[in-house]
């Protein structure tokens, strides 16, 4: 596997020299953040990211993400223009050594939590989702943790209204249309697409979600069979859905060569509904068997990119929820140990 670490560019509070000091981190996972969604990135922007990483001994082989414009998801009249721009962005990143693009096809919200600083028993804080608190949210007057500045109130209500008549099947058809246009470009350039699952993996505010389960993935791969069409195995996102068997899914899709990227983190189910909180990476902290998931990946030939996903805020650190340095660095060290021990035990 290839250990990576998320880096939000020059404005990230975590400098590249710190990331370089985390054992076995080979590449940053980054993106161009100053271009409107749907528009084309410049070669200069990508070259700058690559050069900044290289100056600290790091690669920049994974992009997370090239966002998919809502007009593509909705199937609106401008979608072909935005898809053409997306294809050009794949060519741009490929020219600068990118091998993998992580992206999602979630309408409006690409993640959702009800609490950004849930206090854990050890005094750390983390992201959390309460089913009970979610029921209290008024969709006509949305104020979501971490999302208040993502759209103006008018923009958000306009998008929610636009999706009212979009079914799961229509969204899936729009997704296949998009993939059938971009996958030939991926095959031409050698870039693989690593689809991130719905987070959390169920419908929210009446918005359809179509990447929440094993059945969803099977349907997608049957529709677009190219191996460039793969997934980001996000254990925290899939793992919030209690019917998802993460060990089985890791083994199945790694064996198919579909796992191009893995976001590895643990979650703790906190009630009998859909509530969960994000916890430390170790298996004993949460509801997922991280050691078994890693073993399933290794046994089935996974050799793709990995990153420690959301961490807790620990040691008094403040900043972007889920993306502090300390707990993600600890997570990387833990995952390194799991992979090394598993690979040696299996003679790999």
Q: Count the helices. How many?
A: 12
Into which percentage range does the β-strand content fall? 15-25%
Domain tally: 1
- Structural class of the secondary elements? alpha/beta
The CATH architecture is Alpha-Beta Barrel
CATH topology: TIM Barrel
Low-confidence stretches: none
Number of separate strands? 12
Helix proportion range: 25-40%
Mean pLDDT: 95
What structural keywords apply?
348 residues, alpha/beta, TIM Barrel, 8-stranded parallel barrel, 4-stranded antiparallel β-sheet, 12 helices, 12 strands, globular
Report on the architecture of this protein:
There is one protein chain. 38% of the residues lie in helices and 16% in strands. It contains twelve helices and twelve strands. The protein has 348 residues and is of the alpha/beta class. The chain has a single domain (2-345), classed as TIM Barrel (Alpha-Beta Barrel). It has an eight-stranded parallel beta barrel with strand order 1-2-3-4-7-8-9-12, surrounded by four helices. A four-stranded antiparallel sheet has the order 5-6-11-10. It is globular and about 50 Å long. Helix 11 packs across helix 12 (326-345).
């Amino acid at each position: 596997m290839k250990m990576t670490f998320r880096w939000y560019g020059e404005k990230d509070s975590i400098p590249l020299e710190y990331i370089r000091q985390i054992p076995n981190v080979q590449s940053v996972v980054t993106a161009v953040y100053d271009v409107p969604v749907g528009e084309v990135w410049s070669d200069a922007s990508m070259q700058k990211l690559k050069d900044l990483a290289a100056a600290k001994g790091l690669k920049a082989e994974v992009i997370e993400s090239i966002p998919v414009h809502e007009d593509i998801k909705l199937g609106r009249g401008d979608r072909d223009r935005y898809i053409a721009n997306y294809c050009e962005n794949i060519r741009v990143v490929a020219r600068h050594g990118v091998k993998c693009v992580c992206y999602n096809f979630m309408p409006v919200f690409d993640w959702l939590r009800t609490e950004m600083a849930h206090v854990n028993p050890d005094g750390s804080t983390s992201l959390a989702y309460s089913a009970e608190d979610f029921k209290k949210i008024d969709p006509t007057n949305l104020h979501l943790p971490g999302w208040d500045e993502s759209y103006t109130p008018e923009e958000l209500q306009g998008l929610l209204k636009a999706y009212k008549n979009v079914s799961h099947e229509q969204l899936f058809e729009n997704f296949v249309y998009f993939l059938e246009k971009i996958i030939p470009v991926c095959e031409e350039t050698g870039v693989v697409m690593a689809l991130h699952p719905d987070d959390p993996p169920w419908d929210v505010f009446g918005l359809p979600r179509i990447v929440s389960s094993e059945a969803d993935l099977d349907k997608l791969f049957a529709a677009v069979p190219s191996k460039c069409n793969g997934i980001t195995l996000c254990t925290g996102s899939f793992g919030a859905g209690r019917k998802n068997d993460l060990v089985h899914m890791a083994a199945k899709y790694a064996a198919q060569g579909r796992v191009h990227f893995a976001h590895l983190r643990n979650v703790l189910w906190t009630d009998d509904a859909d509530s969960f909180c994000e916890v430390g990476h170790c298996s004993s902290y949460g509801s997922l068997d991280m050691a078994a998931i890693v073993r399933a990946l290794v046994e089935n030939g996974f050799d793709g990119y990995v990153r420690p996903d959301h961490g807790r805020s620990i040691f008094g650190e403040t900043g972007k929820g889920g993306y502090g340095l300390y707990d993600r660095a600890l997570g990387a060290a833990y995952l390194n140990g799991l992979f090394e021990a598993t690979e040696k035990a299996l003679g790999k």
